[in-house]
Write a structure and sequence with these properties.
Elements (H helix, E strand, L loop, with lengths): L7 H52 L17 E5 L4 E4 L3 E5 L35 E15 L2 E13 L5 E9 L1 H53 L14 H50 L6 H25 L9 E3 H9 L5 E5 L4 E3 L2 H18 L4 E8 L3 E8 L25 H4 L4 H11 L3 E6 L5 E8 L3
Parallel strand pairs: 8-10
Antiparallel strand pairs: 1-2, 1-6, 3-4, 4-5, 5-6, 7-9, 10-11, 11-13, 12-13
Helix pairs in contact: 1-2, 3-4, 4-8, 5-6, 6-8
C-alpha cells in the first residue's frame, strides 16, 4: 500500500507549502503589527493636535465655558485641573473611561478661566509652564467614549497648559480607533482569503516543477528495473542533457553498470579459463589412474604425483584470486621485511642473486608478499638465460622498491600490460607443464594493488625483463 507523501515530489510540495505558509504568516503578523502601530501613532498625533488647539485657547485666556471644543464623536475633550475637577468637556460626551476622570459634566470654579484675576508677581513658580503657555504631552493612553449613544475606543493624549491665572490644567483629547480597527480587519481579511489561494498556487507549482525535474530520475529507475529484469548489463540508463545532480547520477549509474558488466564478464572468463585449466590435469590424472587400475605394472606414479601437485597449485591460485576479488586486504599491523623475504624466496634457486638494503619494512600479509616474490622469481627463472637479480631498496621516505631482473629476451612493449591478465601466456608453443596456467603475474599484481602498491615491467640492464614492485613503507 502506498503511503501518503511517499514520493519525493509530494514531500517537496508539502515542504515548500509549509515553508511559504510559515513565511507568509510571519510576514502577515509583522505587517498587521506595523499597520496597527502606524495607525496608533497617527491617532496619537491627531489627538495631540486636537488637545493643543484647545490648550491654545486656554492659554489665550478663553473662559472654560466658552471654549470651542470639537465634536465629541470625533475628538472627545476634557479639561481637568490639578485637583481632578472637570473644568470643560465636549458637549455631546455621554461617558468616558481611561482618562483622569470619568466625569462628563463640567464643574469649574466661579472665577476659573476669566483671565483677569491673576497676578504675575504672586504666581506660583512650581508649575512646568509659564502663564499663558502650552506645555508638552504628559500622558498617552487608550480608553472608551460614548457620544450620541455610540460607544467607541479612542486613543487619548493629555497636554499640559497654564492659563493666564497661572493655573495648570490638563487637556485630554481623543481620536477614534475605528479607522485603525477597520484597516486592520480589512488587511486580516485579505490575508486570510489570499493565504489559502497563494498556498494552493505554491503547492501546485512545486508539484509541477518537481515532477518535471524528477522525470529523468523516473526514467533512470524504469531503465534500471528493466535491466534488472532482463539481466542485460550492456544496456545503459538515459543521461539528460543537463549539468545538474541528476545528470551526474545517470553518468555514475552508467559507470557502475559498465564496471558491473566488466566484472561479470571477467568472472565468466575466469570460470571458463579455470574450467579449461583444471580439465587437463584432471583428465591426465584420471587416465593414469584408469591405466594403473587395469595394468598396475604400467602405473606412472611420478606423473600422477606431478599432475596432483599441478592441480593443487592451480586450486591454490584460484582460491587466492577468489579471495582477492572478494576484497580481501592485508592486516594493517603486520610488518614484513622485504629484504629478508627476498632472501628466503631466493634460497635454493640456482642463478638468483639478492642485493639491497636491510631492513626495508612494509605493512602487509607476509604470505601474500612471499607469493608475489615467488611468482616473480619463477617467471624470471623461466625466461632467464643464465642469471636473475633481485634488488631491494628504499626510495625516498615513502616507497619500498623490489626489482627482479633476468637476462632473457624481455617482454615486448605492446604486451607489457597483457601479461598481467589471467591465463595469458605470450609463448603459445610453451606447454602447460612448463609454463603453468598463466596466473602468477596476475596474482602478483592483484596482491600489489591490495597492498597499496604497483607492479610494472620494464627493460632490464642485461636486456631481459625487469619487474618492479613498489609498496608504501611501513610507519
Amino acid at each position: 500500500m502506498r503511503r501518503p507523501f511517499g514520493s519525493v515530489r509530494a514531500r517537496a510540495s508539502l515542504a515548500a507549502t509549509l515553508v511559504v505558509a510559515v513565511a507568509l504568516v510571519a510576514a502577515g503578523v509583522a505587517v498587521l503589527l506595523s499597520l496597527r502601530g502606524n495607525l496608533t501613532g497617527q491617532a496619537d498625533r491627531d489627538a495631540e493636535a486636537a488637545a493643543r488647539e484647545v490648550a491654545a485657547q486656554i492659554a489665550a485666556g478663553t473662559p472654560y465655558d466658552r471654549l470651542d471644543l470639537p465634536d465629541a464623536e470625533d475628538h472627545p475633550v476634557q479639561v481637568v485641573d490639578g485637583e481632578g475637577r472637570l473644568l470643560a468637556v465636549s458637549e455631546d460626551l455621554q461617558a468616558i473611561t481611561g482618562t483622569a476622570t470619568s466625569a462628563v459634566r463640567a464643574n469649574p470654579a466661579p472665577d476659573a478661566g476669566r483671565g483677569d484675576g491673576g497676578d504675575d508677581d504672586d504666581a506660583d513658580d512650581e508649575g512646568g509652564t509659564e502663564p499663558g503657555e502650552v506645555g508638552s504631552v504628559t500622558w498617552r493612553g487608550q480608553g472608551t467614549a460614548t457620544a450620541d449613544g455610540a460607544r467607541a475606543t479612542y486613543r487619548f493624549t493629555a497636554v499640559e497648559v497654564t492659563d493666564p491665572r497661572d493655573e495648570q490644567v490638563l487637556v485630554y483629547a481623543g481620536t477614534s480607533l475605528d479607522a485603525q480597527g477597520g484597516a486592520v480587519r480589512t488587511a486580516s481579511t485579505v490575508m486570510l482569503v489570499g493565504l489559502p489561494a497563494l498556498l494552493a498556487i505554491v503547492g501546485w507549482t512545486t508539484w509541477l516543477v518537481t515532477r518535471r525535474a524528477l522525470r529523468p530520475v523516473e526514467d533512470i529507475r524504469r531503465e534500471m528495473a528493466e535491466i534488472t529484469a532482463s539481466t542485460d548489463l550492456t544496456r545503459r540508463v538515459p543521461e539528460p542533457d543537463t549539468h545538474d545532480e541528476i545528470a551526474r547520477l545517470a553518468r555514475t549509474t552508467n559507470e557502475t553498470l559498465a564496471a558491473l558488466e566488466a566484472s561479470v564478464e571477467r568472472q565468466r572468463r575466469f570460470v571458463a579459463d579455470a574450467s579449461h585449466e583444471l580439465r587437463s590435469p584432471i583428465a591426465s590424472l584420471r587416465t593414469q589412474l584408469e591405466v594403473g587400475a587395469a595394468h598396475p605394472e604400467l602405473l606412472d606414479v611420478e606423473g600422477a604425483v606431478e599432475d596432483t601437485v599441478r592441480l593443487q597449485r592451480l586450486a591454490a591460485d584460484l582460491l587466492l584470486l577468489a579471495r582477492l576479488d572478494a576484497g580481501e586486504r592485508p592486516a594493517p599491523d603486520a610488518r614484513v621485511d622485504l629484504g629478508e623475504l627476498a632472501r628466503e624466496e631466493a634460497a635454493g634457486r640456482p642463478g638468483v642473486t639478492v642485493t639491497g638494503e636491510d631492513p626495508v619494512e612494509v605493512v602487509g600479509s607476509r604470505g601474500q608478499l612471499a607469493r608475489v616474490l615467488a611468482n616473480l622469481l619463477d617467471n624470471a627463472q623461466r625466461h632467464a638465460r643464465t642469471s636473475v637479480t633481485v634488488a631491494v631498496r628504499r626510495e625516498g621516505r615513502r616507497s619500498a622498491v623490489v626489482q627482479v631482473a633476468d637476462d632473457g629476451d624481455g617482454v615486448p612493449e605492446a604486451e607489457r600490460e597483457r601479461i598481467f591478465q589471467r591465463f595469458v601466456r605470450l609463448d603459445a608453443a610453451r606447454s602447460r607443464d612448463e609454463g603453468g596456467a598463466g596466473l602468477g603475474l596476475a596474482i602478483a599484481r592483484d596482491v600489489a594493488v591490495r597492498h597499496g602498491g604497483t607492479l610494472t615491467v620494464h627493460d632490464a640492464p642485461a636486456g631481459g625483463a625487469l619487474f618492479e614492485l613498489r609498496l608504501p613503507l611501513g610507519p
